[in-house]
Amino acid sequence: MANDDKFKKVISHAKEYGYVFQSSEIYDGLSAVYDYAQNGAELKKNIRDYWWKAMVQMHDNIVGIDAAIFMHPTTWKASGHVDAFNDPLIDNKDSKKRYRADVLVEDYCAKIEAKINKEVKKAEKRFGDAFNKDEFVSTNGRVLGYQEKIDTVLKRLGKSLENEDLADVKALIEELEIADPMTGSRNWTDVKQFNLMFGTKLGASADTAMDLYLRPETAQGIFVNFLNVQKTGRLKIPFGIAQTGKAFRNEIVARQFIFRMREFEQMEMQFFIKPGTQKEWFDYWKDTRLKWHKSLGLGEDNYRFHDHEKLAHYADAATDIEFNFPFGFKELEGIHSRTDFDLKQHETHSGKKLQYFDHEDNESYTPYVLETSIGLDRMFLAVFANSLQNETLEDGSERTVLKLPAVLAPTKAAILPLVRKDEALTNMAKDIVEDLKWDFNVAYDEKDAVGRRYRRQDAAGTPFCITVDGESIENNTVTIRHRDTMEQKRVKIEDLHSIIKKEVDVKEWLMRME
Ligand code: GAP
User: How many CB atoms are closer than 10 A to CB 276?
Assistant: First the structure.
């Protein structure tokens, strides 16, 4: 399936099976704002729990907090967001469409990268088993030429953005002859900066109301609480503070479904360290976070690191973990070495000391910070899109199956009485539901032929179907069918709990990080 078609299928499947709806759909929706439906809310919660367990519960030196969305407005002056949280935007004079200038250039490079991939595929076909991809991409003249072009363009873009040279960003767009993707027009305005924060007011009267911002990242709630948490938790460096929660950005180019939203959720962790140790911790967290992703089995080749040329105003090193989304490799998580920028800024603006006293070295210092920051919605999209598959079965029929990692699946098992009208079967199935629901999210489904029910549960992502039939009444056994293999086994009802637990247990999955 072409990538565009695959992505459309992902969006329609998410709606059809109760995962994601357009916000306020009855009023024709609100751009780049989405609601999570009954299955989506469960999947999102399971991803959040999987992150929290790995990050907070499994680390003795990381604690979790839940800071407010509203913060004192000086927070955002101190953090640099008032002055520097901008995107470079450009308008097309003919179509009146607005774009992020850097994204136009990056999309141009992605097209060249697609050409590289095409060359690789062609060579793979030609050389068969003897094909060595690394050797090919490092020696083939055409591929090297494409790669050089990408590197030159991205380097120049990074430099221009770093130097705030917006005229050069426009010049680059013109030199590369980049056209409006919707209309093909090359009639561009100058590039301007646009602040992404949403403003609001606190207070009832117009004279006394205070200007506030909806937080554009959760991280600042951690920085301003750093000393409170350290002291009340008696924490020793190195230690981390984690939180999950909503963040808001007035994205100019909000597109690609839940990949880039105006209201989204982050899962962030700030790790406070001794100055000078940031390189060591940067490598540690790069490695640890990649292992977390890989533990979910979405495919080793679907991840890559992308080190930043252009660093954010607070960072001395940064990398993205990129994921192979249906529209190509894009940022899923950021790992940033934030130095002591934020704590120092908050010290200056609040006039309060935010230092740590190191009893071992008998000295006070402002800690450095290593941050891991992942978008929960992006993680949802990565999991969902990667799991959605179309299979042709041995008998030639097709099935759509959502192969979600069982640990994240919204419903772990569906209990199906073979015949709806047989009360003995329905009662037994309902008893099984009553028993299992203490530990697992399970569903009861009696409508339609059993084959159709299997397909429905496959498409909804349910890892197990448990069928109660005539033999169940005789000997207290049921059949359990695995979503991915479609294999069926007859098992004792009393064993169901342990069979399901083994497949969905967070511990079993997180152990794969080792
Ligand atoms: N505290 C650092 C920070 O916020 P970021 O790279 O701007 O860094 C971190 O954002 C992560 O948040 C990204 O890797 C992405 O997964 C997610 N994210 C950022 N903007 C988003 C948006 N508009 N919609 C959905 N997720 C977003």
Answer: 9
> Domain ranges in the chain?
1-71+196-390, 86-195, 411-513
* pLDDT at 314 (0 to 100): 78
Question: Candidates 264, 265, 308: which one to mutate for ligand 1, based on the most atoms within 8 Å of Cβ?
Answer: 264
Nearest ligand 1 atom to alpha carbon 218: 1
Using one digit for the tens of pLDDT, what is the confidence trace for 126-168? 999 889 988 999 999 999 999 999 999 999 998 998 888 999 9
Q: Is 342 in the pocket of ligand 1 (CB under 6 A)?
A: no
CATH superfamily, domain 411-513, is Anticodon-binding domain (3.40.50.800)
In the reported structure, the alpha carbon of residue 174 is separated from the centroid of ligand 1 by a whole-number distance in angstroms of 29
Question: Which of the residues in the chain have pLDDT under 70?
Answer: 1-2, 254
372-393 core/surface letters (b: 16 or more CB in 10 A; e: else): bbbbbbbbbbbbbbbbbeeeee
Q: Does domain 86-195 have CATH number 3.30.40.230?
A: yes
Segment 230-250, tens digit of pLDDT: 999 999 999 999 999 999 999
User: Ligand 1: does its nearest atom lie under 6 Å from the Cβ of 260?
Assistant: yes
Distances 106 to 142, 150, 151, 176 between C-alpha atoms, Å: 20, 9, 11, 12
Return mean pLDDT, the chain: 95
